[in-house]
């Protein structure tokens, strides 16, 4: 039963990702006409073709235009009007008004006969079957779009310090809460639980006003401090729970040997807690990299555009282009996915240990 539940959850996560990935490599027409699950299948399309009257010749009292429709693929049917674009099978002769006759072969070769040669020959429709086509043009358009490079750099400049700072401070705090006896320690632990349950939205406006008074509003230092404050309670709790699983005898023996608390922290606690640090760092980085709400609040009005903000602007300008939206979503996922895949073993080993108590 557990395996079935895991398989269903995995499928529910993979299906949207697969849909985004496939759609991001399709052109606009294919993405708008058919679902992404039909992308590997040959496509049936209706195209309009206007023969060139200059190629017509007079034959047996009528004008004949012959040629081959370009880039049609395999023609399955053809028609004389948009209401019935596939009314006639290939190889047959379709007859229209005023003595018009049209024959189309499977390779797109056609013969059009009309009594009078007009300045513009009558159009006809081809229902063609072409192999599936994939393109990287959507990604090229996004990468060449104005602001993509600065947005990537701004996201790294935001996510890396805002991940390191809370972990660094949380490691000090967790060490003190686990290995140092002092009055009020239990109250501090209870306060951490309360801070984790507190929603961050009520703190945004007072915090932003305080940063404006300090002169760090609408800047990287301000949003670094905001993410550090919002991430500290959970980081301290996870690292504290992880450190509590370490053998206390190691720390006691080091103190008996006269090792200072700072050296115990640097030489014993931190190396043994690296899995917990790395595991939480992954979650902190993913949260900050994908965050739009806090970035919009603390960087709103500034010239800085992190990747989620830039992607929102791209989506506003390409709202009906599903292939562009899918490519933008995949671009946003690439870095977090690479970080997760690179550290997933450390993540699985670290966080369960830290959550055991």
Structure notes:
It is a single chain. This protein has 357 residues and is α+β, with helices and mostly antiparallel strands. It folds into three domains: 2-40; 43-130; 140-354, MetI-like (MetI-like fold), CATH 1.10.3720. The protein is built from 13 helices and nine strands. The strands form two sheets. It has a five-stranded antiparallel β-sheet, with no helix packed on it. Strands 1-9-4-5 form a four-stranded antiparallel β-sheet, with no helix packed on it. A hairpin with an 8-residue loop joins strand 4 and strand 5 (88-89). It starts with a helix and ends with a helix.
Features:
disordered C terminus, 13 helices, 3 domains, 9 strands, alpha+beta, 357 residues, MetI-like fold, four-stranded antiparallel sheet
Strands, total number = 9
Structural class: alpha+beta
Average pLDDT confidence is 83
Beta-strand content: 5-15%
Which H/E pattern describes the elements? Answer: HHEEEEEEEEEHHHHHHHHHHH
Largest sheet: 5 strands, antiparallel
Topology:
Elements (H helix, E strand, L loop, with lengths): L1 H23 L3 H6 L9 E7 L7 E3 L2 E7 L5 E6 L8 E2 L3 E3 L5 E4 L4 E6 L9 E7 L6 H8 L3 H32 L5 H13 L3 H14 L5 H24 L4 H9 L4 H12 L1 H17 L2 H7 L7 H11 L4 H33 L3
Antiparallel strand pairs: 1-9, 2-3, 3-8, 4-5, 4-9, 6-7, 7-8
Helix pairs in contact: 1-13, 3-13, 4-7, 4-10, 4-12, 5-7, 7-10, 7-11, 7-13, 8-9, 10-13, 12-13
